[in-house]
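thought: user wants a sequence for this fold. calling inverse folding tool.
action: design(structure=
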């Protein structure tokens, strides 16, 4: 394993100065990035309905300019989502900002580019699969080989940076960007087998790390604080969990996992332990975070077969919950790694399950949204359909009593009548 890291191009004093000039304006109710404010797919909103349809609890529906697997985000009055249109190698990527109250489009932009769909049989992958992220003042989006774009909330394009076009992965690209202090961190696995940090104000590249393993990760990284107070940048790659220094991109530690073929689900962390699932025939691993070098011997708490290829899990009351691509729901004890429940729901899933208080919301691709009790019995509360036969592959966003889901055709706002 080798990682080449470039030194940061910006001094600490300048970063602090920029932070003072641009205080964050995110609200607690916002859903500013992939899987929400804490990157764990959890909401405490008690106002989200458990039942809806095309005629019940549907506040509005907006036709989108194209398809997409990305998830919507919510910042104040804005709901932001991406899409793609076109065919073959020539595609357009769209970012759309919507008024959350009315469902009217506030602004949109489109970017010309090439297809990131990998093999022709998977042309729908990777074109608009990255969820945007916001700091409350700006919105950042990765459009694959078209690069990284920054916008203000009025739709003005602030900067654009390229991240490569090497088409290193069969299934295109999907890892979502994240924010850390003054940095925008972008995993450009398919684009250039790299992970990079940019100054979020100017777009200046601060560091870049490269490794062949990055070409097979579709997972979104996250920043965590270890038991010693140190912050690590965690990233799941094939067969390993990496702990990197978020200030310079250097690898601090790594541990072996059961994730094979491709790393897609995002990582969950609780009590100093990271829970990693993934791989087409892979499994699940619990790893104590922190340390130095190869920590596999002492840090791996348990490692078992059986996981989820694409959808990410949630953690609730000592259990991991997920629904895999084939519609099989699993419940795993986080202390032992043992599977408590395995239940077939049916259908196909790319969307990650979302925990709303004590309920699980699981959006299937073609068969509606399941609402289940978040207990090992997984009792079904409802199955909700919107009369849209297109593909629902983005994960939900939840804010201020509203639930937002997207299909290949439309963006929906669900709220109690």
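)
observation: tool returned 417 residues.
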């Amino acid at each position: 394993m080798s990682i080449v890291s470039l030194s940061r191009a910006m001094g600490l004093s300048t970063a602090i100065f920029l932070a003072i000039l641009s205080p964050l304006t995110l609200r607690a109710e916002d859903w500013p990035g992939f899987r929400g404010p804490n990157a764990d797919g959890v909401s405490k909103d008690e106002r989200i309905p458990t039942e809806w349809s095309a005629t019940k609890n549907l506040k509005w529906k907006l036709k989108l300019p194209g398809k997409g697997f990305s998830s919507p985000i919510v910042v104040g009055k804005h709901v932001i989502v991406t899409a793609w249109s076109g065919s073959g190698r020539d595609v357009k990527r769209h970012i759309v900002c919507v008024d959350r109250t009315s469902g009217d489009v506030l602004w949109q932009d489109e970017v010309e580019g090439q297809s990131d769909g990998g093999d022709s049989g998977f042309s729908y992958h990777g074109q608009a699969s990255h969820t945007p992220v916001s700091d409350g003042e700006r919105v950042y989006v990765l459009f694959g080989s078209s690069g990284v774009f920054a916008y203000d909330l009025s739709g003005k394009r602030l900067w654009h940076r390229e991240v490569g076009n090497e088409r290193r992965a069969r299934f295109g690209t999907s890892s979502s960007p994240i924010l850390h202090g003054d940095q925008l961190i972008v995993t450009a696995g398919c684009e250039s087998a790299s992970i990079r940090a940019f100054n979020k104000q100017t777009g200046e590249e601060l560091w870049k790390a490269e490794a062949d393993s990055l070409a097979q990760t579709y997972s979104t990284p996250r920043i965590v604080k270890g038991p010693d107070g140190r912050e690590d940048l965690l990233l799941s790659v094939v067969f390993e969990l990496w702990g990197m220094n978020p200030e310079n991109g250097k690898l601090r530690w790594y541990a072996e996992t059961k994730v094979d073929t491709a790393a897609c689900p995002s990582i969950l962390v609780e009590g100093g332990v990271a829970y990693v699932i993934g791989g087409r025939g892979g499994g699940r691993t619990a790893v104590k975070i922190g340390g130095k070098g190869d920590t596999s011997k002492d840090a791996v708490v348990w490692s078992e077969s059986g996981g989820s290829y694409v959808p990410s899990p949630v953690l609730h009351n000592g259990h991991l919950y997920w629904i895999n691509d084939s519609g099989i729901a699993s419940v795993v004890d986080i202390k032992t790694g043992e599977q408590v429940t395995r239940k077939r729901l049916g259908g196909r899933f790319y969307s990650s399950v979302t925990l709303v208080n004590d309920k699980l919301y699981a959006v299937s691709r073609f068969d509606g949204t399941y609402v289940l009790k978040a207990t090992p019995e997984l009792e079904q509360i409802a199955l909700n359909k919107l009369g849209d036969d297109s593909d629902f592959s983005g994960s939900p966003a939840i804010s201020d009593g509203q639930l937002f889901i997207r299909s290949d055709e439309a963006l929906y706002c669900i709220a109690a009548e």
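thought: summarizing for user.
answer: Here is the designed sequence. The first strand starts at residue 4 and ends at 5.
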